[in-house]
Design a protein that fits this description.
Shape: elongated
Number of helices: 3
Structural class: mainly beta
Strand content: 25-35%
Largest sheet: 6 strands, antiparallel, barrel
Distance between the termini: 87 Å
Strand order of the largest sheet: 2-15-18-17-16-19
Oligomer: single chain
Order of helices and strands: HEEEEEEEEEEHEHEEEEEEEEEEEEE
Number of strands: 24
Helix content: 10-25%
């Protein structure tokens, strides 16, 4: 049988054996084949690079696009301004701490005002033995009775006074009566002398004879002027407001006592008056009607609303007397305030003690009192939580940009991007109100910077 072999060049091709396998003798050298592969890969890389450059518009002539890649975002100028850092802390609106009224009258409490009531000059704070205790304005407390004292003509010394009136020194006898009995008083006549309160015979000796008479002596002092100022303010005049309690003052006191419905003695007892710098707001009573007067009979506060902040003792540098702050009311209304008092003793929540850390590491705090200048701005609100905003730090006349304009640089730090795509390194300062302080040799006022979107 004859075998016919057909050659398919397309199948075997040059360099292949008739059965289709590659002819080893026809294979190119190994080094040449590697060079051919490297040339193909290089050509692919070059084509890809050219395509990328064309897509970015970085090569070729002007018709190929702008010098910088197109970016979205707006541009803003670098401006010069004052930045103020503000910090808010919690506070409590109220009338301040309630203090006990210094009631010096003795007896039974027969009337008390309602808590929250306001008492002005000349008003009744309470009644003791059905006698009013009146509020007057002043800072000097009532420490002695006010009235005319009596002295003996020609004797130069003081004579015992009738019950309820002050002696020559301005201090009443503890028993309310004179130091000598009526029988021991001078009645004139031979062989009789008028003894002084200490029992020493009066000048003149036995046989001096002659009748004695009592001439009033004026009481003097700053407490007299303080009282006379109030008396005149209540409409009782007829005297000169000075440091002398004269007969004119005594007459005015009697008219004032008549208006109060009390005996017209012309003498103001220690328990008749309580002084305060201004009108007061009545707090909670410490006793019930019918009880004896005590140290905590009645409490009071000032009449002006204020805010108390428990400020961190470690971060209370803002709390300086006279510092201006802003108070945010519960409805969001801002009200101007001013620091008026700073506590000197730090306390910690949970009984941590002075300067302690308290429970759970709570920071020690000090009380800061903030006065409200415009009381009408608070409306009818009397108490409640508020916020107090204060200036923590301020820089003036510095270059600033919006915080959104800052970009992080690859080499570290911050920079600004110019509209042409350049990046300028800057040093940042205070951040406040959405802006930041910037500085650097390449930063100038008015230059445009990009805010990326």
């Amino acid at each position: 049988m004859t075998e016919t072999v057909t050659h398919h060049e397309g199948a075997a091709g040059a360099g292949r054996t008739p059965d289709g396998t590659a002819d080893p003798a026809s294979r190119p050298p190994r080094g040449r084949r590697r060079r051919r592969t490297a040339l193909v890969v290089s050509a692919v890389v070059v084509v890809a690079a050219v395509a990328a450059v064309g897509a970015l518009g970085l090569g070729g002539g002007p018709e190929e696009g702008p010098a910088a890649p197109p970016r979205s975002g707006s541009t803003v100028p670098v401006t010069r301004a004052t930045l103020t850092e503000r910090t808010s802390v919690d506070g409590q609106l109220g009338y301040g701490a309630e203090l006990p009224l210094p009631v010096k009258a003795t007896g039974t409490v027969t009337w008390l005002p309602e808590p929250g009531a306001f008492v002005e000059r000349g008003g009744e704070l309470l009644r003791v033995d059905d006698r009013p205790v009146t509020l007057l304005y002043g800072t000097l407390p009532m420490y002695r009775p006010l009235g005319l004292t009596a002295q003996e003509d020609g004797a130069g010394g003081s004579e015992a006074d009738p019950p309820g009136s002050p002696d020559s020194s301005g201090s009443p006898d503890s028993s309310g009566s004179s130091g000598s009995s009526g029988e021991d008083r001078a009645k004139g006549g031979a062989g009789r002398t008028a003894p002084t309160p200490s029992g020493t015979p009066a000048p003149g000796g036995a046989g001096a004879g002659g009748n004695t008479s009592r001439a009033p002596r004026e009481l003097r002092g700053m407490d007299v002027m303080q009282f006379e100022t109030n008396l005149a303010a209540l409409g009782h005049t007829g005297f000169t407001v000075d440091e002398r309690f004269t007969s004119g003052t005594e007459a005015a006191v009697k008219r004032w006592q008549k208006s109060l419905g009390i005996p017209q003695t012309g003498v103001v007892a220690v328990g008749d008056v309580i002084y305060s710098p201004g009108r007061v707001r009545i707090g909670q009573p410490g006793v019930r009607l019918g009880a004896a007067v005590g140290e905590n009979t009645l409490t009071y506060t000032g009449s002006s609303r204020k805010v108390v902040v428990n400020a961190s003792a470690a971060d209370a540098a803002w709390a300086v007397r006279g510092a201006a702050v802003s108070i945010g009311l519960p409805d969001g209304t801002p009200v101007k305030g001013e620091v008026t008092a700073i506590g000197k003793q730090a306390t910690a929540p949970g009984g941590g003690g002075e300067g302690g850390s308290g429970q759970g590491g709570a920071a020690a705090t000090i009380p800061v009192t903030v006065a409200i200048k415009d009381q009408k701005a608070v409306g009818r609100l009397e108490s409640g939580p508020v916020t107090v905003e204060y200036v923590g730090r301020e820089v003036k006349d510095v270059l600033t940009v919006p915080v959104a304009a800052l970009v992080a640089l690859a080499e570290g730090g911050h920079g600004l991007e110019t509209p042409d795509g350049r990046f300028v390194a800057v040093k940042t300062g205070l951040f406040a109100d959405g802006r930041v302080e910037v500085s650097g040799s390449a930063v100038r006022e008015g230059m445009k910077v990009r805010i990326p979107e």
